[in-house]
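Review form for a predicted model. The reviewer records the input and the model, then writes brief findings.
Reviewer: anonymous (R2)
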Amino acid sequence: MAASEAALGQWTALAARLRPEVYARIMDDDQAVSDLVLMHSRSAAGLDAALAGLPTPVLRRHAQAALRGLAQRAALLGSSGDARPSYGLAPELWRTLWRHLPRPIDYAEWPSLAGRIQPELWSELFASGYANRDANTALQCAPAEMGAKAFEAAWPFMLAQFGNARDNVPITILSQFRLVGSQYPDCATSSEADTREKLLFLASKGVAQPIRGLDAKRVAANAKSLVPAVSPFLDSTASGKPRLVDAQANCTFELTAPLYRELLNHATVRGDQDTVEVRVETVQLIEIPGDARCGLLVGGSSQVNGYVGGLVDTFTGPENNPTPSCPDPSDRYEVWRERGGKIERLNTNMGGDDGVPRLMPVQDTVTGHRYYLHDGMQYGRCHGALRLPFTFEWKSSAQGPALMKTTAFPELEEALYAQCSVDDKAGVRCNGISALNAAAPSAAASTPKDAFNSLDLQTFLKVFRKSQFDDYQAAVRALDRPRLQAFRTAGVPGPWTAEAIKSLAHSDLPLAERRRRIAWLFADHDQLARALDNEVLASLADWLPREDWGPILDVVTSHRDVYYGLGYLRTDLADKKRDALACDIDRAQGLMCGETWGADR
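Model under review:
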């Protein structure tokens, strides 16, 4: 609303009718000042009058909000060839704001503002209090997005204001031909011709120098006209001794009763200031500084919103889409450790990028400092570009130790560019870090040592509670009610019950004995809900009588948002001439017999 012409007219009319003391009270508010500036961000004269009309104490108290109001529209809108670049705001708007705000202005909220305003304003920007002299973070993708002529005009300003421009700007322009990193994102360029002209211009100025991590094959395959211009920037030197190398976690682990109960009964993760809870899907042993016992890195990428949950509204009615190609990120992670029988949940800033982190301990051979290396992988069809691996480290926070991304040492990223390369088949490989490309064992072959990599939750529980898993399966086969009751009291992972159900389907027990055991397993509806999936249902379709399906139908009725593959199950039952049971399945979903929403099709 605040950015619209209509809002400006309505506000001007209203403000004219307000008494000065009322106007001052209304404007003594961050949002009000920010909106006032945003409304007047088309006219320097209008902005000048609006700021002049604010009482000086009010403007001083809300100077940061006034900056925010204008900065929201700051942007390099792009250019190509000889065209002049277009920006979101005219220079006079910035000069008007700077004239009214007290100095120095705090730009902490807008560290990349320099890349979003005209280069000829940079000297005035720094004079007003802007302090970011790092060309990478201050300009971000601006050097790549500018047309060739605009870049040549801006180059003297870059050299004058950013001491590392000669080193950083060529990397930004060529970032599309490197692995995507956190310091240097994959910047879109104005055009291939512009990129060539910019590289030739930099070479003519003596700026061409080898850039680590450039992929000459990608240049030749995707931009042949750039090959001669890129050649001076290719690093042809042999790889030296890697800086980051494999390390071993120095801790021991026991799956204690409190940790087991937490994984069994409270296996969800919630991010900071986040109401979304995500189920724990993977578990990894991780070293916590100063603690001889390993912690658990737990989390998952369960999709939780209505679309990804399954039902999609279509012209023919709701349809089930269990595997969307571009899921919204809802991955969350945290580290658990046990202290005195209680579980502490330590913060980490992993999550939110469709990744399933697999952390590897590494050591910096220069400083001796230890880090955890994220393999950089992202999942889903929406992530085409491979990422450079990046590091995490333990930091202190008000809530205790926190596992956070390493940001203070950009030279570590450059070291990884020197170590890492992309193979068309094998993906990213890094010299000195063998764990990055180590093949994960199958779930059946996993051992406690493999938990220092990453295991899915059920494999993890089976590895560290193998004897308990075997005892439970034996108790089901023997229908040992006292032992089964003890298991029920202590708690049983749902997949253990699922395994027991599927085993009964293939056992040589008489039908009556199998039904007795199924009745025991089905008696606890909550446990059945945790065990039920499409494989379990399919295993029962051949042999379990219709009258024994009541608990399953109750679970399906009360969990209609869960994907059970019911469309496939119903087709299977119909093929087996079990029409009455197929009709029961329809009714459990709220359908009439034979009705379909197109689900699972």
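Findings: Residues 304-309 have pLDDT under 50 and may be disordered.
Further findings: The first strand starts at residue 76 and ends at 78.
Recommendation: see findings above.
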